[in-house]
Design a protein that fits this description.
Length: 509
């Protein structure tokens, strides 16, 4: 429970004398190789402080990290006590944190839905929700399948791959380019910039690279609007300014690249290293969906974020929080909180990987479709896929915010096969603006040989003829598991054959 700090304290809102949080030197760093190698051990130590603990996100950047599930919900939903507007970040405003600090691009205020509150947030978030509501999940699924096939065709004959660079990176990028109507060269620049910001490497330079690319993309869509997300945002009744467009796209595209890549890679790592996710139709196991649930609980792609600021000095279940000090929610620590009543995660969507409250992720449906199809398609095409190194030898990229593998080497019996080239592989022609004539959705299973589609990025039918409402999002409140416990399957070598069929059977496709 949050409440104002006691007026009897010598300095309201500060830790009492003797508390380890009293000294900035006690702040635990979250940006080095030790944290990247074993964040669980760090979270365990931080829990000794209570529901929140002092951490250092980068040199000279101190924050309080919320590690308790219940306390995380208090912060994420406590709009009367906590806000998202980063202009309240006192250290940045006063110059204690330099503008070129590596975490500033991830934390500084931007006029978008992520950093706004109240009416401003409702306006900006409403524009995003409306545009995402128009996305046809069947068309999205079809394009992800096309994209996955093309990537697998490229490395399949080799018999080995780094699935991070060869698959998990490029698949979200292809889908992003198509959904946002983004030419490939701009998409590459945006990905490079986003990756640099998440890694904290030349972050200020990467932020400028992203801004420059988005200015070009917005100008392109003003000249040649289409059926893509950028064009829809430009045409939305919210009447976003160019500055708002840039920063709305920063959060949308940022969430569509690095976190999506990590979700796919972390899911593949789990499926290839943990025998619990084997199964067959007889025992009713759905390994891909179960693996995604497990990853979202234990290794969420955004491990620590959801930055908030207390409106005044308060206490969070006895831990003082100072006004103007970043309060960072550890989605990873909160969802592995030992105080949670159950560790049965299959089918349980009460994790906090998508955040919660008014700033919960608006694209949960799309992110899950992309990740599940990516895993299904790869395991269907390469059923004998296996890690090329022991799972405990895989390394993780340092950084305070993400949970990201550095590489995912695999091997498999070589396969060959030519699939349909992707629309995104065809250069964008200099054509007249696209009309609104209805089009036929992409087929789920294309012929094995056909000429490349002349469509340009953004011109696949992402929207149905009549916009459909998004399905209800699952709650982030504590709940009982939403599916019964299922026995584990056989860990035999051939266990992954037919996984794609199982997923289709489960959905009734």
């Amino acid at each position: 429970m949050t409440h104002p700090a006691s007026p009897d304290d010598p300095r309201p809102g500060t830790p009492p004398p003797g508390c380890p949080a009293h000294s900035p030197a006690s702040a635990t760093p979250l940006y080095g190789p030790e944290f990247a190698a074993d964040p669980g051990a760090v979270y365990a130590r931080l829990r000794a402080y209570g529901p929140a603990a002092p951490v250092r996100l980068a040199p000279d950047v101190d924050a309080m990290l919320v590690t308790s599930y219940a306390a995380a919900l208090q912060v994420l939903r406590g709009t009367e006590t906590f806000g998202k507007d980063a202009r309240r970040w006192r250290a940045l405003a006063e110059g204690t944190v330099a503008p070129d600090n590596p975490v500033v691009p991830m934390m500084a205020y931007r006029p978008n839905a992520l950093f706004s509150e109240g009416d401003a947030h409702r306006r900006l978030r409403g524009a995003i929700d409306d545009c995402l509501r128009a996305v046809d999940p069947d068309a999205l699924r079809g394009y992800v399948e096309h994209s996955a096939d093309a990537l697998i065709d490229a490395f399949g004959p080799v018999g080995e791959a780094n699935l991070l660079d060869d698959y998990a990176k490029h698949l979200p990028l292809r889908v992003l380019n198509q959904m946002f109507g983004c030419p490939a060269d701009l998409g590459d620049r945006l990905y490079t910039g986003m990756r640099g910001i998440f890694d904290g490497i030349d972050a200020e330079k990467c932020d400028a690279l992203i801004t420059e690319a988005l200015i070009e993309l917005i100008a392109l869509k003003r000249r040649r609007p289409g059926g893509d997300m950028v064009s829809r945002l430009l045409a939305h009744e919210a009447r976003l300014t160019d500055e708002e467009m840039i920063h709305q796209l920063v959060v949308l595209m940022g969430a569509s690249t690095e976190p999506q890549q990590n979700l796919i890679a972390n899911g593949l790592r789990l499926l290839l290293s943990d025998g619990r996710f084997a199964g067959d139709l007889g025992v009713g196991s759905l390994p891909v969906e179960d693996a995604l649930d497990e990853v979202l609980w234990t290794d969420p792609p955004m491990a620590n974020y959801g930055v908030h600021y207390a409106f005044h000095d308060v206490e969070l279940d006895g831990v003082p929080l100072r006004e103007g000090v970043p309060v960072v929610v550890s989605f990873a620590a909160a969802t592995t909180d030992p105080a949670l009543a159950t560790d049965r995660r299959s089918g349980n969507r009460a994790h906090l990987a998508w955040s919660a409250g008014p700033h919960g992720c608006p694209a949960q449906r799309e992110a899950r479709i992309i990740a599940s199809v990516a895993l299904e398609r790869l395991l269907d095409r390469l059923p004998d896929l296996e890690l090329a190194v022991p799972a405990d030898e895989l390394t993780w990229r340092p950084g305070p915010f993400h949970r990201a593998l550095a590489a995912l080497p695999v091997r498999f019996p070589p396969v060959t096969g030519v699939r349909v080239p992707l629309p995104a592989e065809v250069p964008m022609p200099e054509a007249a603006p696209r009309t609104t004539t209805p089009r036929t959705a992409l087929p789920k299973e294309p012929p094995t040989a056909s000429p490349a589609s002349p469509e340009t990025p953004g011109d696949v039918p992402w929207t149905s003829s009549q916009a459909r409402p998004n399905p209800p999002l699952t709650s982030s409140t504590p709940q009982a598991p939403t599916s019964p416990a299922r026995p584990g399957g056989s860990p035999s070598a051939g266990r992954r054959r037919g996984w794609n069929f199982l997923a289709r059977w489960w959905r009734g496709r």
